Structure formats: structure tokens, C-alpha cells
Amino acid sequence: MERPCVRVPREAGERTRQALADANLVDEDHEIVVEDGALYLPVTDPAAVADDYEVVSRDVPTHDSQRTPADLLGFDPSYERLGDVAILDSDDPERADRVADAILESDLPVRAVIDRASKVKGDLRVRDWTVLATDPEAAVDHPATETVHREYGFEYRLDLADVYFSPRLATERHRVTEAVADGEHAVDMFAGVGPFAVPMAARGATVVGVDLNPAAVEYLRENARRNDVADRVTAIEGDVRDVAADYADWADRIVMNLPHSADDFLDAAVTLAGETCALHYYDIQHEDDPFGPGEAAIREAAAPAGYDVEVLTRHVVRSYAPHELNVCLDVRLSR
User: Fold this and answer.
1) DSSP string over 263-332
2) Which fold has domain 2-59?
């Protein structure tokens, strides 16, 4: 199909494409063509192209459109992606099967579709899953629930059947870890597979990650190696209340991402904290007073150890349930 195109020397192609994209002039429905050392970049409005570009008309192929699950189903299904696994949360088995088949038939790079079969349960924070469908052409030697998730430049291998992991918290994890300075001592009290510990180590911190779940600790070690920070991450299996005395007065930064019961571990956090310490305390509270209970609990635990408490940020992470919020208190403890 003949379309208006900007013709530029090949070496100027990317610079020109970016300039056209900044002006919202790139025709995304047609492909860029290379011929005789020149690039032909399809544009949506030739009259809006700057005069210093040459605009020509030529035949360019149409982009093949990607088939989505919505194209196949006739409606837009709800699902999450974690690596090459799609996650449903459905109470209608027949609908779930239809959605799973459509996801695998679509052009999404998905190897397996699983459905939540229980709530998160127990001290190890795991849930049951139903495997709805797997790609028969995918040659893999690991369970359908195991995948590699990529987040802000880091990779995490994990098995959802053995560990807790939420991709919805990626932005929050990035917010916290971007504050870490080179040379810090950091403790992740409930480390899981390492989505806080690994980026903190990558920023130059020496990190101790603790978790009760032995599978999570093994994945934490693997993920530290995978992201080239194994020399700065110590992974410990156990209850952080039993570990705290070994790292007393050590931490410059502590992450407490166990929002249903973090208050039970504040005494351990105070033991870990150094002379000054940044504390990231996660909580779930009613929307009428989402921060008050957590702040009161922190002050009550910190006072006997002689800490002043300065609340730096009161941050809403997300809505958790009707009238309930998942929040984070960023606090500075100072003796």
C-alpha cells in the first residue's frame, strides 16, 4: 500500500524516527522499509512533517496485527502476566478454561495459564493453584508454576506454588530501593525471592535477607547469583526475631513488608537498627486512619531503646479491599 514516508539516510534513521515519534507522527500500522541505503519511515500526516525532511510516497507493508485473547474471545479477560505464566483469579471454571485456551492461542509469549485455587495461607505465605493449560510445544523441564520474572532490569526465578510473589508491587519496590545508597547495611526482614534485597545490593548495599520459607531462601540465593550480587547478599532461613541479635545495631535500612502482622516484629526491627536507620513499614488498615496504628506501634517499640521517630513519608501503596488500604510508613529512627 502506498503511504507517505520520510526518506532519510540509513545512519540517520533512528534519530529521525525518534523525532517523528516525539511529534506523534509515526504510522505504527505500517512497517519501516530499508532500500539502497535509505530508510522509509511511514508517517500519519505528511503536512505536519518538518520542512527539512524529504517526504515521498511509496509502497510499504502493513504490520501484522498481534492476536490478543480479546480478539479470540470477543471480550477483554482479566489476567496477570508473570514471566511466561498467565494468572487468572476466576470462580467460573468453564469461563476460566475458555480464557486459558484463548491466551495460549493468542500471540502472547505465554507457556502456561494457572488459576488461583486458594487464598495466601500459613506462615510460608503460599497458595494453591490450578493449572488450566500449558503450551504443548514449549519444551521445559520445570513446573508450570515456575517462571522467570523481569522487573526494572532484574530477573527473579520463582515457583508460585512454593513462594509468595506479587508483580503488582513492582513500582513500590522500585520506589524504596532507589533510595538506597552505596555502602549501606540493609535488612529485608521478610525477603522472599529477593525483589527488595537484590536491587538494594545492586545499588551497593550489603544486604541480609531473612525468610521462614526454605524455598524462598533458595530462590533468593539463586536470584542474587543471577543478578551478580551474590557477594553482597546473605540469605538466612528462619524467623527474623531469632536472627536479630546476630545483627544488633547493624542496619542503616530495614524493609518490613509483611503488612498483616509487621507490628509483631517491631522489637526485632529496633534490635537490628543502627544509630540512625530508615525503616519501611508496611501495613493494611481501614481508610479512615490508614497510618495512625502503624505509627503508634513504631513509636511504642522505639521509645524504650531511646529512638526518636521521624515519619518521612506516609504512602498509599494500593487499595487492598473495600475501605482497606495497603500503606507504607517511611520512618527515620535516630538515637
Assistant:
1) GGGHHHHHHHEEEEEEEEEEEEEETTSSSHHHHHHHHHHHGGGT-EEEEEEEEEEEEEETTEEEEEEEEE
2) Alpha-Beta Plaits (3.30.70)
Angstrom CA distances, 255 to 159, 174, 245, stand at 23, 13, 17
The phi and psi torsions of 111 (rounded to 5 degrees) equal: -100, -30
State how far the Cα of 294 lies from the Cα of 302, in Å rounded to an integer.
Answer: 12
Please report the pLDDT score of residue 139 as a whole number.
Answer: 65
Distances from the Cα of 14 to the Cα of 8, 19, 174, angstroms: 10, 9, 29
Tens-place pLDDT, residues 224-274: 999 999 999 999 999 999 999 999 999 999 999 999 999 999 999 999 999
In the block, cell 492476536 appears at: 67
- Tell me which CATH code domain 69-144 carries: 3.30.300.110
Q: Model's pTM, two decimal places?
A: 0.79
Homologous superfamily (CATH) of 159-334 is: Vaccinia Virus protein VP39 (3.40.50.150)
